[in-house]
Amino acid sequence: MKTLSVRFFVAAVFFGTAAASLANPFKSKIIQSSDPVLEITVPGDHFMKITNFTQDGGTDRGVIEVVLPGDTPNGGSANVLTAARVDFSTGANTQTAPEVSNRLTIAGPAIVKIKPVVGAKLFITYRKERDEGSGGGGGGGASPTAIPIFSPTPFPFFSVTPTPTGTPFIFPTPFSG
Known about the structure:
177 residues; five-stranded mixed beta sheet; extended
């Protein structure tokens, strides 16, 4: 009986360690109005999925700003998502219907910045993942693959030249009666 429970314990530890090492859990952060700016770095071979960005209190909206690092032609920053409000009792943005929280995916390399809002709590849930499919779309290490196209009519012996034609449009005439 003792060896059987030891074997089950070893198997449970083995599978628990494998699940914990392979899992890519979501992370959640709460940003109070007194906190510094939250900066999340997304490396070039990763992307970040934001599944929840909400705000409780405050009058201004919390925003997610994405900064593209370096002196690239696309360098700069942009506000890409505003927080969905969960407390509608204060401010000019007072509403009665609940707001929809959008999801967002940000490809790296990028720096995600969230500035605190006076009198508000911001809540974000995200996950950074490695970009395993970077070989597609003609970028990265993609190599073109020839796709044979078979046609029942041989191309050199038969060709069709389309002739442009006008599309008739009938204009209504006013009724005179």
